[in-house]
Structures are given as C-alpha cells and as structure tokens.
TrEMBL record:
It comes from Podarcis muralis (Wall lizard). It catalyses: a 1,2-diacyl-sn-glycero-3-phosphocholine + H2O = a 1,2-diacyl-sn-glycero-3-phosphate + choline + H(+). Residues 465-492, 758-785 form the PLD phosphodiesterase domain. It is an enzyme of class 3 (hydrolase). Residues 93-105 have a biased composition (Acidic residues). Gene3D superfamilies: Endonuclease Chain A, Phox-like domain, Pleckstrin-homology domain (PH domain)/Phosphotyrosine-binding domain (PTB). The lineage of its organism: Eukaryota, Metazoa, Chordata, Craniata, Vertebrata. The gene is PLD2. Residues 67-114 are annotated as: Disordered. This is Phospholipase. It comes from the Eukaryota. CDD domains: PH_PLD, PLDc_vPLD1_2_yPLD_like_2. GO terms for biological process: intracellular signal transduction; phosphatidic acid biosynthetic process; phospholipid catabolic process; regulation of vesicle-mediated transport.
Length: 939
C-alpha cells in the first residue's frame, strides 16, 4: 500500500485530485493521474487518515467511481471503490514556450441536466457556498473518466501545462472539465499539508465549508441547473445600450472589474455573484449576438467581448487560451441549440414558426378569463403577466358566488404555494390616463413576497411620454401562454349575449315599475353567496358615458346602472402551448430584464432576473393544455423598440402586409382602429394600401375577392377625434363596395322598462385570411401599433395544418380547422343565423349581398328608425347633428311599436357610418389638451 505522501517525482509525476462534496455526511473523490505508460497496477489507497472513514480503490479500470453515502440510518460500509486506467498522453506536439504562464481553462461543461432532478425555481434561490445544502443525489455514484490529454511538447515527460479532459457523470448529469497537471500537483501539496496539520488539529465542520475542499476539481461552487458551460471570470462593468437621459460614454473610462461565476446555456448566458449566489445579469442571445477575442475589441489583455442588441459584455481571462476556449464554447452553444434566436425569421420576426403547436381561440372575455384562471390554478413554478391595465379585484369566473376566482386572491394563493409571479404594467402619464397602475402595483405586492410588480417606462429618464406598452399576455410555467386584446381589467368580461343591464335578479327586457327601482349607486358590500350580478362595482362601465374614477374603491359603482346601460365589449384572444409559449415567455423575460436594467429602483435582489427555459420541448410534453386546442403552426410576432425592449422589431406589420398580399379569396378583419393608407406625412403604415392593391388585382383579373372589415364605430371618451376614417382610406369610387364591406356592431335592450341601445365596443385585433391563416394580438391597424417605434405589441400568426372539407366560391375547399371554426363563431354571433349553411361560403354572392350586407343594412335602418342612433350617415355636419339630436325617437314616443320593429333585428351587425360628420374638420382645436398633442398620437 503506497503512502499518501507519495512524491510527485515518483512514477513520473503522479498527481492527486479530490473533491469534498458538501452535504450532511459528505463524500469524496480521489483522483490519480499517472504518466506511466504500458504499466497497469492495482493498488489500494487508504484515505481514512485524511477523509475519516471514507476509502478509495484504484482497480486499474478505465474510470473512477465515487459512491455518495447512502441515506441514514443505513450502516456505514467500507469505503467506495475507485478505479482508474491511466490515460495515454495525447495531443499534437507544440512548442510550449509561450504557454508556461497560462492558467487553466477554468470552465465546466454540463451536457445534460434534466429538469426533473432539479426544480427550475431553485436557480432563483441561490445561496453562498457556506450556506449550500446537499448538492448531490445521495446514494448515486459519481463516475470520473479521463477522456484525453493535450500535450504541448515532444517527449514522454509530462509538463505542468499538460491539460487533461475529465468527464464526470452523476445520475443523468454529465460534466466535462479540463485541468492542468500542475493543478493536481497543487492538490497533492494541499493534501500533504492537510495530513500534517491533521496530526495536531482536530477535524471540524469548518473544513467541510472550506472552499479548497470543493474547488480543486469540481469547479462549480454554485451549480446552476442545466448550465452548459460554467467558470469563474472577471467581468467589466457597463456596456449597456440605454435610450434616454444617460451619461454618454459612461463606463468607457470609469469602470471596475468584478469576479463572477459565468454560466452559459443554450439560448443565454448569465453570471452570478460567488459570495451570495445572486444572478447579476442575464444576456439573451439574439440577432445582435457576436463574440470577439483580443485586446483591440475588448481593450484588455486576454479579453472576450460578447455582444447582443442591448449590451456589450467584456470579460477578462487569465490567458489567451482560456479566452479562446470561452469563445469557442459560447459560440458552439449559441450557434447550436440557440441558433433560432441569432437570425431574423419570416416577417423579420425574432422567432421562427413553431410546428404542430396546440392553439385555442377565444371570442369575448368570458371564455378567455375562465381559461386563464384554470391555467393559473395549475401553475407550479412561474406566472408572467403584462397588461396595459390590470384590475386586481376582477372575478375571472361569473357570476361570482365567492372570492375563489378573484384575480388578486387567486394569485395570492399560488404565491403561497411557492409560485413566482412577475407582473409588468404600463406606467401611464397620470394627467392623460386614469388607469392608476400605481394602485394595481401596490395592491398586488402587498399580498405576498412572491408577487413582484414592475412598471415601465420612467417618462422623464426615458423621454417617453407619448407611447405605451399595449400588449397583453399571461404565461404559466413557460408552457402555456395567453395573449390578444384582453386586459385583465374592468369592462372586458363579456359573453355573446352582450347584455346592456345587470340589475340583480331583474329581467332586463321586462318593463319595470318605480317600486322596483334599485339604489342609484351601489356602494355597500355585496353578499357573494347570493350574488347574481355579472359586473360588480367598477366592472359595470360605459366608455362613452364616463371614464373610470376612484379605482382604489373597486366595488363601488361609478355610473348609475339603473339609468345608464353598460357598453358591451367584444374582443378576441388566443392560447398557445409548447415552443410558441416559450417564445412568448422569452419576450416577457426580455422586457422584464430590460426594465430591471434601466430602472435603478429595480436593481436590487428583490426583483430577480428571469431565465428562459430550454427550447428542448415538444407540444406533447406541456403539463397543461387548454381544452379545445387545435394543432397548427404558430409564429410569435411583436412590435418593440429600443425604449420598450432594447431593440427594434415590427414583425406584426410585416405579417399583416404579407398575409393580405398572399390572400386568394377573402379577408375578415376585426379591429378597434383602421388608420392606414400612407399619405407620406401623418400616416405611414400601408395596410390599407395593401388591401386596395389586392382589390384592384381582383378587379382587373375578375376573380372573386371579399374584404369584410368590422370596426369600432366611435372612439371612446369625449373630446377625441381622428382625421382618418375608413371612407377616406379607400378612395376607389363606387366599385369598391362590391369587394369591401365596413361594418360595426350594436345591440339593444331594456332598462327599468325603458328601451335603449348601445354600440358594442369592438376591441378585437384579428385578421382571418382564406380560412387558413389567422393573426390575433394586441396591435391595432394604425401607426402606433404597427411601426414598432411607438407602442409595444404582441401577436401570433396561426397557420392551419389540420384541414377539413368546406366551401369557397361555390367550390369544394380544404379549410383550416382553427381559422374556419373561429370565423363561423364570429359570423354566427354577429349575424344571428340559425344554420352554418348560410355562412359556410364567405365568397359567394348570396352570402355577401343577401346575408352580410342585407343584415347590416336592415339592422341599421331599424336602429335609426327606433332610436335615431349616433353615429349615422344621415349626419354629415354639425348642423345635421343638432337637428338629429332634437328629434324624438320612436322608442320614446311609441315603445310598443318600437318593440315590434326591434323583433326584426338579426344579430348585431350594422353598417359603418362612413359619412358621419364627413363635412367637418375633425382634428381637435389647438387650444385643447388633445390639440396640443402631436397628431402622431392619434394615428
């Protein structure tokens, strides 16, 4: 049995390495590397004197095996068996004169890290080395194998700079590391010193926490689940590319170097503070990714420069070889599994279309809110939410019989279960908007420490006063994502019935006597156990009548629900799964991390950097699938700029133009706005021009083509206007009406025995083309949403792969299951048809003239006759407006006759008032607050 103090000079410089794995009982790995060639020896090495009762066995095989101790109370067995086959020195013969001063490639490569062995959220709870608990699977062996040796000199003598490649396997985890021969010499020296000191000083737990017990071989002091390449580096401060009021050129001359633990994964890299384990920064691989080595690009010796669109990160290595190694490893990972994010894809998007993705559409808020609530209730790890406006107290399922499905309490319940909840809110200009995002932030963050809320932008520092974060999304566990036009806010929840009244227990169609009149404004607490209302407190709203006020009193009415009808809300959303949900989550993470970087108040540990999960997932692996999902190809699109996410993109705009240009039969559009047709001055987007070009092509070649556009008939609020109308957008003479139809939505009902009508507020942002392609998102058809440089938006392009038999232009046609089912649902709702046979073929003349146009014309005529509605084509000037308002309606003069007329209304479709106030100049006066705002705000 050779002594542990065996001389380094003996056996051609044998070296020793070990790793003390911290845990409750600890375990060890004894490594022997020998340059003796052709000799195979078997020897038993006792380590009891150094490591207590643990022993190692060198058996002459080709690997070393370390057995972690079994969990107590199993009796302690004899030491683990450790075996080794000495590697044959390999590598090409090089002159090593320039390598003597080089240090090791201090890196650790992990090839596999399954999530089932390490919870994803553990990365956010990193601790310093002294506080680490058990880091390894107890009872599972660690196997070490020498893969190769790189020798940079001729001859048989082993030089100190000979590099050995070691492969460690622990369960399903695999690490590959490289260490120089001199490191094993240093470890042997430490073991010798330890053996001598052990004779005089007793061993304590202090030795287990001592960094030298971990670092010599097992390089990762703070293992990161799923880390591909890891190692200690020096990082230079600064390098961020920030828009707004920032010190120009800062950190170019005044900077500092900090020691950080760098971790590289398949689509990003991060670095940690070794002393605390806190993630200090996350750099996502994107189209701006670039990596360079050398003094010129980094301005430092042995430097590595890593760029993306938001930052230039400069690292300092101990040698040129180490810098080249980092460059090679990072490049291989980025251009391998992370290659999807390194280039622009179709429509200049940041991600490619994801094949075979489960997707589910939602029309109106009732189904969307319920599905979001069910998904949130299934959350295990993370919930991401971003909205233009968020109301914490809304009920997700109605009528609410308890607080079980109230949004804030649902999030609190999940936070108490350990789910991390991150919310990004648009920080409004208080004088212009009354959505009170500060109240929403405080209300959520006071619920639980696991709920983190950030607001963006800071208007002064970013110089952003006119633009907004308009996107809406909810992501659960990065596996299912909801997006579209629906904020989780007041007034958005609705059904296909589009009710105008919500008097508890009342029939809104039956005449009411004064004795049944309820309290004008409800301010007392509501007994949910007996509640029958659908819209509680501030949720009962009418945008035309009054904007929201006193949002910190959520259950108090702010309009008289016995006198004022609510305004129904029509919207469209979508749920996507798998890789598409990963892409939505990556967008949120990019915005969250960007906000944390640019706002100093969020730079502390209370607001963590977020990490995207690996893209190695298939749709069949998602833990939760929204019921009714259909398989399709899905591409995530967005509008972002340097102020909103750190880079510029307008893939939603490109997708709209492409889908319109490539459409063959019809387009169906639902949108809140239609401000298009570039005039070279105030309007830039060309969506309207694309529709005109497609119609002109159909007109010249004589194939049938239709464009059905459903728009909001009147802007919300008072004192607001737009100089652009759809009628002005399309100047094609009278022939265009054979190809294009502009419509709105309206409904009617009774409130306290009084007949009334109201517009249905169209907030949808949707396009369907040829029953095969669908765009759903948050982007309006205007410059604000489409150009990318203004509002931030999010959308998806869904392309059907599951085709079903249908009819198009009187011919058999293979329609997409997703697009067809969505269109039929929309048509059934707005047309009030009894059979799908009437709406199956959107291209036929019978449908276009006898159903679509006839229904819109008939409903418009009835509403004008009964209610003298506004807006209407009969009012072309202010004089006409005064005359129209002064007339008494049939509903007030003869309710019985009015009811007879209203029985003929079918669905909700009405004609869009293209000529309403056509003779008037609609720009706001210059002395008004709207007039002082640039016209770009309204376009």
């Amino acid at each position: 049995m050779p002594p542990l103090s065996r001389s380094v000079s003996q056996a051609d410089q044998a070296g020793w390495g070990r790793n003390w794995l911290p845990g409750e009982t600890g375990c060890c790995l004894c490594v022997k590397i020998s340059s003796e060639i052709g000799e195979r020896e078997r020897e038993r090495i006792s380590c009891a004197e150094v490591f207590g009762d643990l022993r190692a066995w060198h058996a002459g095989s080709d690997s070393w095996v370390l057995f972690a101790p079994p969990p107590p109370p199993a009796p302690q067995q004899d030491g683990p068996m450790l075996s080794l086959e000495r590697p044959h020195p390999g590598g090409e013969t090089l002159d090593d004169s320039d390598l003597e001063a080089e240090d090791e490639r201090d890196g650790l490569r992990r090839d596999e890290a399954p999530g089932d062995l390490s919870p994803f959220l553990a990365i956010y709870e990193r601790k310093p080395l002294r506080s680490q608990g058990p880091l390894f699977l107890r009872g599972v062996p660690v196997t070490a194998r020498v893969e190769s040796a790189e020798r940079y000199a001729s001859g048989s003598k082993v030089r100190p700079n000979t590099v050995y490649s070691l492969r460690l396997t622990h369960g399903e985890f695999t690490w590959t590391m490289k260490k120089k021969f001199k490191h094993f010499q240093e470890l042997h020296r430490d073991l010798m010193r330890h053996r001598i000191l052990m004779s005089f000083l007793p061993l304590t737990r202090v030795y287990r926490d001592y960094h030298a017990m971990v670092m010599p071989l097992f390089s990762a002091p703070l293992p990161v689940p799923g880390g591909r390449v890891e190692g200690m580096i020096l990082k230079r401060s600064g390098g961020h590319r920030l828009q707004g009021l920032n010190c120009a050129g800062r950190h170019q001359f005044c900077y500092r170097w900090s020691k950080r633990w760098l971790v590289v994964k398949d689509s990003f890299l991060l670095y940690l503070k070794p002393e605390s384990g806190v993630i200090s920064f996350v750099l996502l691989f994107d189209t701006g990714f670039n990596i360079q080595v050398g003094k010129k690009p980094t301005e430092t010796k042995h430097g590595v420069r890593i760029d993306n669109t938001c930052r230039s990160l400069i690292l300092k290595c101990s040698s040129y070889r180490q810098a080249c190694w980092w460059c090679q490893e990072i490049t291989e990972l980025a251009e391998g599994k992370g290659r999807d994010f390194l280039r622009l894809h179709r429509h200049q998007g940041f991600v490619p279309p994801r094949k075979e993705t489960p997707a589910r559409w939602f029309v109106n808020g009732a189904g969307y809110f319920a599905a979001v609530a069910d998904a949130v209730a299934q959350a295990k790890e993370e919930i991401f939410i971003t909205d233009w406006w968020l109301s914490p107290e809304i009920h997700m399922k109605r009528p609410a019989q308890s607080d079980e499905w109230r949004l804030d309490l649902l999030l609190k319940h999940k936070a108490e279960q350990g789910v991390r909840i991150c919310v990004l809110l648009f920080k409004e200009v208080g004088l212009a908007l009354g959505i009170n995002s500060d109240y929403s932030k405080r209300a959520l963050m006071l619920l639980h420490p696991n709920i983190k809320v950030m607001r963006h932008p800071d208007h002064v520092s970013s110089i952003i006063f006119l633009w907004a974060h308009h996107e809406k999304l909810v992501v659960v566990d990065q596996s299912v994502a909801f997006l579209g036009g629906l904020d989780l806010a007041y007034g958005r929840w609705d059904t296909h019935e589009y009710r105008l009244a919500d008097l508890e227990g009342d029939d809104c169609w039956a005449p009411k006597t004064p004795s049944l009149r309820t309290q004008t404004l409800i301010s007392s607490p509501i007994d949910l156990a007996t509640n029958q209302r659908l819209w509680l407190g501030k949720d009962y709203s009418n945008l035309i009548a009054k904007d929201w006020v006193q949002l910190d009193r959520p259950f108090e009415d702010f309009i008289d629900r016995c006198e004022t009808p609510r305004m129904p809300w029509r919207d469209v959303g979508v749920a996507v799964h798998g890789l598409a949900a990963r892409d939505v989550a990556r967008h949120f993470i990019q915005r969250w991390n960007f906000t944390k970087t640019v706002k100093p108040k969020y730079k502390g540990q209370d607001y963590p950097y977020l990490l995207p999960k690996s893209s190695r997932v298939t749709p069949l692996q998602v833990p939760f699938v929204v019921p009714g999902a259909q398989t399709a190809n899905v591409q995530v699109l967005r509008s972002v700029d340097r102020w909103s996410a750190g880079l510029h993109e307008h893939s939603i705009y490109n997708a709209y133009l492409s889908v319109i240009k490539e459409s063959q039969y019809y387009l169906y559009i639902e949108n809140q706005f239609f401000i298009s047709c570039a005039d070279g001055r105030s309007v830039i987007n060309t969506v309207g021009d694309a529709i005109v070009d497609r119609v002109l092509l159909a007109h010249r070649s004589r194939p049938c083509f239709r464009a059905l556009c459903k728009l909001q008939s009147l802007p919300p609020g008072t004192g607001k206007g737009s100089p652009h109308r759809p009628g002005a957008t399309l100047s094609l003479g009278d022939d265009w009406k054979s190809y294009i139809s502009f419509c709105g939505l309206r409904t009617h009902g009774e409130l306290q025995g009084k007949l009334l009508t109201e517009l249905i507020y169209i907030h949808s942002k949707m396009l369907i083309a040829d029953d095969r392609r669908v765009i759903i998102g948050s982007a309006n058809i205007n410059d604000r949403s489409l150009l990318g440089k203004r509002d931030s938006e999010l959308a998806v392009l869904v392309e059907d792969t599951d085709l079903v038999p249908s009819v198009m232009g009187g011919q058999e046609y293979q329609a997409g299951k997703f697009a067809l089912s969505l269109r039929l649902d929309c048509f059934r709702c707005v047309l009030g048809v009894a059979s799908d046979l009437d709406i199956q073929d959107p291209l036929s003349d019978r449908f276009f003239w006898d159903i679509w146009q006839a229904t819109a014309s008939s409903n418009t005529s009835i509403y004008d006759k009964v209610f003298s509605c506004l807006p209407t084509d009969a009012v072309k000037s202010r004089r006409d407006l005064h005359h129209h308002v002064s007339k008494k309606s049939l509903a007030s003069e003869s309710p019985i006759l009015a009811r007879d007329h209203l029985q003929k209304v079918r669905g909700h479709l009405v004609q869009f008032p293209l000529d309403f106030l056509a003779e008037e100049y609609l720009l706001p006066p210059l002395n008004s607050k709207e007039g002082m705002i640039p016209v770009e705000v309204w376009t």
